[in-house]
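Chapter review: from sequence to fold.
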Amino acid sequence: MIHPEYINLDKTKRTIVISDIHGSLTLFQRLLEKVNYTNEEYLFINGDLCEKGKNSLETVEFVQKLTEQSAKVFVTKGNCDVLFRHVFEGNEGILAYMKKQKHSILNEMLQNHVKSIDDFSIAAEIAVHYRTNYRKKIEWLESLPVAFETDEHIIIHAGIENKKDWKQTSETSALQMQAFYEKGHQSGKTVIVGHWPAVNYRTNEISSHNPLIDREKKIIALDGGNQIKREGQLNALIWENGEYDHIYTDELTEARTVQKDYIDTTNSVGTVTYPNYEMRRIKENKYFTLCENRNLGLQQWIKNEYLITENDMTWCRNDLSTTFLSVEKGDIVWVVDDACEGFALIKNDNGEIGWIPKEVFA
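The token string follows.
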């Protein structure tokens, strides 16, 4: 069972929700600047301050300062924020995770003391180090509520269980539920979640990491795939006067100007995402191959360089847009992949990700 904290919002003030920072402190600070955040506004940070990015500890410290500077900053815990539990519980499997995931708050708490996982033989020894050096920080992360509730919204990291009394949701579900948008809920309020990248729901839509806002289902999926997807982004959801808007920042750096118009006539849209990578080849062209996505039963055009065939089985080797975009002369786009033949994968000003022919840059 979870115990949400109720917040009585002043509806004359703007409310901003950001989720899944994942240790990307610079990106988070850029996003706060981009939305012109002031401490007179409400700011909700919906879990996963830590992991995957390079600055988990600094991100936690920065968010702590935000909460000290304004009583209008509210932070929920995410599954990545409490990974230290595995250490304290003596789960030796966490050691393999730490060796694989170099950018982790668990490793940072060692590195700051000129130590590494190789200096410890069992999880219990690391637990002693954490308790000795980071007790207050760990206590702060544990003290974060699982959910906030307002008159109109429930803000929770992963989701609520589909039952009449949503407060009976287990903490495990609240922090780790997969694909909440596909499950639905009975709360009567709009549920704002992160955790599961919004692009994962766009297998048959224009590829994008923008928030998925579904007023009918009363769900907003906010996770922009930051630090998980190569063209992922950090999203800010803004609600003001009953309306939603969003702004994002990402780490793409190569901008190009389109030199000639290109009108797509394929009308191909979609995305290959976890875990739906197995394909059946249908028709191969010079640059793309039409495939059937075996798990989804969808036909998707896959860039040839991304297809791998072994032992009569074919996979798309990574998450990938199967969307083709139109562009106009003068458009500024950001390059995601320019290493393939004939076409470049780009992201446009609207956050849409897709393929355009390289000749448009000539």
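Two observations follow directly from the output. The helical segments are 25-34, 56-69, 84-88, 93-100, 105-111, 123-143, 171-176, 180-183. The longest helix spans residues 123-143.
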